């Protein structure tokens, strides 16, 4: 754990009641700690709490200081903040009358724009800046580091890895709290100044930022895949990564009972973090069979660093039952607790817990790439050996190309940053030509790390049982409360969407789309702007000069 | 004639056993399918993509009467009445199905290429709201136009009301201050187009209609169609309701000279839920000027309250554009226009934007009827931006024409010409200038008579 600093308390108003919380505590963590653990009321009047913890699922949206539809997990508590979890029917009455109608606009030009400030994005920014490129980095989160290096809310300073990369990135500009909601790649305009355009929204400034870049590195990371089972919508059931994010955001888990169930290596790391924070992890259930895990263990033990990480985790998890071939069957509310019915190595077992953390691997966040016209391959965005996507001038690094973990993200970031800088500034520029050797080295390292992606996919392949946990009345689309049976007549996503509203809500099908992709084999839809919901004001700005209104 | 429905009981009705192929399962094709199947025809629909998945899915679903022309009024008024008559059907169609369980499990569209028959039912939500339309007058000049429209509608027994500024503000508290008033059309409503299309389809299917989705047609002749898979299908009547693609599918020699559909691309933006923010369909009174002007790209304020509580914001028109790319600058102009009227919209969250392409004609009236060179092949397209509204009236007209044709060759001409005093047909056929770019005059005029809708018509089950 990062070193804690004393944080001063601030007072926020939560549905009219004053609550004292540590300054900068993640607002979703505050909601999850409140008695009902509720953030909002769903369209069929179910209580809902935070799920993904990282701005993807939109389950935690509330009204903050008169701004409706704000994701609590993307907000930090400040003194005097007014938070309302009112149902949709009351949203209009909570709207602020004082918000500015017109958004401010600011333009940025750069050789290389990096989207995402996690390991891949930071490495790309560092590599590109080192060879002389002018770099701008955009991230929707309020601090850099991405999900894996997300700083604890009470940490005094950024993690040393982040500090090192930022130092290397030199004069690169970091724009935090900025959501890219539209983008355009000019595939024919390679020599026309800065042909790629990114439209972003800054909630803090209530304004747009238009970035023009000669080259773009997509380091957009990944989000968790959830598989629907009865009870997965109950407040207190949240993502494995989501619980970790809120833990770092200030959620107090001391003495709380947690069951972790799902698939993938993230579970063990989060279990260790929870234990270190004082939680009682009652079990970790992994759906993959023991034999597959053993093969994976053997394969990763060939990579000394990964083997050491694994061993270290196991030591810290001593005493926690780790069960392979196990999964949740259903969760029900039982008083203040959640009762979990699970299939544990073939036998039924019940657990009474305070939190259920669930997640079935990660989904590459390819949306921005797709919006730019980049092709998607089986594992993520399609890239060549220099990590160039299928659209000239657009590069991709890290999880967006396929889930490979932090080490792969770092080497890919270095390579994509170099390649993008060369594309933007030309190989002939002095420092860029010196990068030829570096490129060759990085290409070899990337190829080695990509093999890990394949091992990962094979070991944690989802078994049929966990793909069939949803019952006819289980909600599949949490935004619109579309239940499994309603999707039964359909063979593909779009027809189901038009008829049932599945995937029409603010998460734009990220949650249900990722589930239905594996549960029913439905291809996800290609994204359209906005890539993530933003206030209407963000759209009022056109490129270039103000257009006159018709009158 | 009966080969395609041998398994069904002998059909009754004026079109019993008439074998009909409909190209296109958008709202117009499905409305035709329903109208003809209910009258006993054996209907097969082929659809290139997903049912109600192209222009229909992109539409706003505003059911309204329009005063563009006498013909447009006749068609929209009759159509609105037909939609109202369906409200009763829907109350059963939308009966809450608590577990979301489909009424019966059905085979569905394509998985992995081979087209399969789509037939059956699922829970459908039409999301119908009789919210009325407010044509917003920004200033005194526009309010004068509102008064004139009120007179015009009144003379034709369409109920409207002129609202002063204070009443408008009470009706719509989030409209900006300083507007002059509005023309209120209380009978207009809103539906969710794919839901409405599904209800039409359900009723057609109940009367034996079949639908093949994912099944593109490459060529259409007189009474036959050729599929991309090489199959050739024949029928007594082929109805081409393929929207913008309709004319390009026709065999060249069947195409009357100059017959063309003009694409008009439009953008829409939808917000997250904020029920009550907007209560009526709001359209700026300057809308028609901008919608039907000659500027290549125009925007107008048009905001709709969805049954979900979302706000759907339009509209833009790009004449000649048929791509479906969302254009940032056009959306920006549209949103700016919206914020001029509803400043508070700025803070509502936008969930999606999308594009639809309206199939338009030179005079903004649809093409309905048989091709002069191919009496067994009929057109039902060119509904521009009001296809959701006018689908039902168009389908009824086509059904009536087929019934009349069956009853005797001279009957339809008589029946339709009888009340042609206000028919636009004379204008359409009389002046080649106003028809530039369209070849409506080449179509047998007797088959196109929206003025017929001025008769009070009996609502058929």
Summary, kept brief:
Chain A is an alpha/beta fold and 551 residues long. Chain A contains 16 helices and 27 strands. In chain A, strand 3 (40-41) and strand 4 (47-48) form a beta hairpin.
List keywords for this structure.
heterodimer; A: 551 residues; alpha/beta; Ubiquitin-like (UB roll); FAD/NAD(P)-binding domain; 4 domains; 7-stranded mixed sheet; 5-stranded mixed sheet; 27 strands; disordered C terminus; B: 461 residues; alpha+beta; D-Amino Acid Oxidase, Chain A, domain 2; 8-stranded mixed sheet; 20 strands
Mean pLDDT of chain A: 89
Major sheet size, sense and barrel closure of chain A:
7 strands, mixed
Q: Per CATH, what is the topology of the largest domain in chain B?
A: FAD/NAD(P)-binding domain
The strands making up the biggest β-sheet of chain B line up spatially as: 6-7-5-15-16-17-14-18
Overall residue-averaged pLDDT value of chain B? 80
CATH architecture of the largest domain in chain B: 3-Layer(bba) Sandwich
List how many beta strands of chain B DSSP finds: 20
User: Could you say what the CATH architecture of the largest domain in chain A is?
Assistant: 3-Layer(bba) Sandwich
Oligomer: heterodimer
Per the CATH scheme, the topology name of the largest domain in chain A is FAD/NAD(P)-binding domain
| Tally of alpha and pi helices of chain B | 12
> What are the segments of chain B in which pLDDT stays under 50 over at least 5 consecutive residues?
1-9, 92-122, 410-461
Biggest interface, CB < 8 A = A-B, 60 and 64 residues
Please report the distance between the alpha carbons of the first and last residues of chain B.
Answer: 25 Å
- For this structure, what is the CATH homologous superfamily of the largest domain in chain B? FAD/NAD(P)-binding domain
- Return the structural class of chain A: alpha/beta
């Amino acid at each position: 754990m990062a070193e804690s600093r004393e944080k001063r308390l601030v007072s926020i108003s939560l549905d009219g009641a004053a609550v004292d919380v540590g300054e900068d505590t993640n607002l979703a963590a505050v909601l999850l700690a409140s008695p009902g653990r509720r953030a909002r009321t769903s369209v069929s009047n179910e209580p809902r709490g935070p799920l993904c913890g990282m701005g993807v699922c939109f389950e935690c949206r509330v009204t903050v200081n008169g701004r409706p539809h704000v994701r609590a997990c993307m907000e930090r508590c400040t003194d005097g903040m007014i938070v309302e979890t009112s149902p949709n029917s009351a949203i209009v009455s909570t709207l602020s009358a004082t918000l500015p109608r017109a958004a401010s606009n600011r333009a940025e030009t750069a050789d290389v724009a990096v989207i995402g400030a996690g390991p891949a994005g930071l490495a790309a920014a560092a590599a590109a800046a080192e060879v002389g490129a002018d770099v701008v980095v955009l991230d929707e989160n309020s601090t850099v580091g991405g999900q894996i290096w997300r700083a604890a809310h009470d940490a005094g300073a950024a993690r040393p890895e982040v500090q090192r990369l930022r130092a290397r990135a030199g004069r690169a500009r970091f724009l935090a709290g900025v959501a890219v909601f539209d983008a355009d790649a000019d595939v024919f305009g390679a020599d026309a100044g800065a042909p790629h355009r990114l439209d972003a929204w800054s909630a803090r400034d209530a304004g747009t930022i238009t970035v023009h870049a000669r080259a773009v590195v997509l380091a957009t990371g990944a989000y968790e895949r959830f598989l629907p089972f009865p009870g997965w919508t109950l407040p207190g059931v949240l993502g494995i990564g989501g619980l970790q994010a809120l833990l770092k955001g200030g959620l107090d888990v001391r003495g709380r009972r947690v069951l972790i169930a799902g698939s993938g290596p993230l579970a063990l790391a989060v279990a260790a973090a929870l234990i270190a924070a004082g939680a009682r992890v009652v079990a970790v259930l992994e759906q993959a069979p023991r034999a597959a895990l053993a093969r994976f263990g053997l394969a990763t033990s060939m990579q000394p660093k990964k083997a050491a990480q694994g061993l270290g985790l196991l030591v810290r998890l001593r005493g926690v039952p780790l069960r392979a071939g196990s999964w949740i069957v259903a969760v029900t509310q039982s008083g203040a607790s959640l009762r979990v019915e699970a299939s544990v190595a073939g036998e039924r077992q019940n657990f009474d817990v305070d939190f259920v953390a669930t997640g079935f691997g990660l989904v590459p966040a390819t949306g921005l790439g797709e919006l730019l016209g980049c092709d998607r391959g089986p594992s993520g965005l399609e890239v060549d050996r220099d990590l160039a996507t299928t659209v000239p001038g657009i590069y991709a690094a890290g999880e967006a190309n396929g889930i490979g973990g932090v080490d792969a993200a770092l080497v890919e970031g270095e390579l994509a940053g170099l390649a993008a800088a060369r594309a933007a500034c030309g190989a002939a520029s002095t420092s860029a030509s010196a990068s030829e050797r570096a490129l060759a080295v990085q290409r070899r390292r990337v190829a080695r790390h990509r093999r890990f992606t394949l091992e990962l996919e094979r070991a944690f392949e989802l078994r049929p049982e966990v793909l069939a946990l949803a019952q006819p009345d289980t909600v599949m689309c949490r935004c619109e409360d579309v239940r499994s049976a309603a999707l039964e007549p359909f063979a593909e996503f779009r027809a189901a969407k038009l008829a049932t509203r599945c995937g029409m809500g603010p998460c734009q099908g990220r949650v249900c789309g990722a589930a239905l992709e594996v549960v029913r084999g439905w291809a996800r839809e290609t994204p359209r702007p906005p890539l993530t919901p933003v206030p209407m004001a963000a759209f009022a700005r056109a490129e270039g000069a103000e257009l006159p209104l018709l009158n | 004639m009966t080969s395609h429905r041998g398994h069904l009981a002998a059909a009754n009705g004026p079109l019993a056993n008439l074998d009909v192929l409909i190209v296109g399962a958008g709202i117009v094709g499905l409305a035709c399918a329903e109208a003809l199947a209910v009258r006993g025809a054996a209907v097969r629909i082929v659809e290139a993509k997903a049912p109600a998945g192209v222009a229909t899915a992109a539409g706003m679903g505003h059911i309204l009467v329009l005063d563009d022309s006498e013909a447009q009024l006749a068609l929209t008024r009759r159509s609105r009445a037909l939609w109202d008559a369906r409200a009763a059907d829907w109350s059963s169609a939308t009966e809450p199905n608590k577990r979301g369980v489909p009424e019966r499990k059905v085979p569905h569209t394509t998985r992995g290429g081979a087209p399969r028959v789509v037939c059956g039912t699922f829970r459908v939500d039409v999301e119908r709201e009789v919210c009325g339309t407010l044509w917003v007058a920004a200033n005194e000049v526009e309010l004068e136009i509102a008064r004139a429209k009120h007179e015009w509608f009144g003379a034709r027994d369409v109920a409207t009301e002129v609202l002063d500024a204070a009443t408008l503000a009470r009706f719509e508290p989030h409209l900006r201050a300083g507007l002059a008033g509005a023309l209120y059309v209380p009978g207009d409503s809103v539906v969710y187009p794919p839901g409405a299309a599904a209800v039409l389809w359900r009723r057609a299917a109940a009367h034996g209609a079949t639908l093949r989705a994912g099944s593109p047609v490459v060529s259409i002749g007189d009474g036959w169609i050729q599929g991309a898979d090489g199959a050739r299908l024949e029928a007594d009547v082929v109805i081409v309701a393929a929207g913008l693609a309709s004319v390009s599918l026709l065999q060249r020699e069947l195409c009357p000279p100059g017959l063309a559909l003009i694409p008009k691309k439009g953008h829409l933006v939808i917000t997250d839920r904020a029920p009550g923010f907007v209560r009526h369909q709001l359209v700026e009174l300057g809308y028609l000027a901008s919608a039907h002007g000659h500027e290549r790209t125009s925007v107008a304020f048009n905001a709709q309250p969805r049954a979900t509580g979302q706000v759907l914001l339009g509209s833009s028109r790009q004449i000649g554009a048929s791509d479906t790319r969302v254009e940032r600058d056009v959306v920006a102009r549209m949103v700016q226009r919206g914020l001029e009227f509803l400043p508070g919209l700025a803070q509502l969250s936008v969930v999606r934007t999308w594009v639809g392409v309206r199939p338009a004609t030179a005079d903004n009236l649809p093409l309905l009827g048989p091709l002069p060179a191919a009496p067994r092949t009929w057109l039902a397209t060119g509904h521009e931006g009001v296809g959701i509204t006018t689908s039902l009236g168009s389908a009824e007209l086509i059904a009536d024409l087929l019934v009349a044709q069956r009853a005797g060759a001279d009957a339809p001409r008589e029946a339709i010409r009888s009340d042609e005093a206000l028919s636009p047909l004379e204008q359409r056929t009389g002046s080649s200038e106003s028809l530039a770019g369209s070849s409506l005059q080449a179509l047998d005029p007797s088959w196109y008579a929206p003025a017929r809708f001025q008769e009070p018509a009996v609502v058929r089950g």
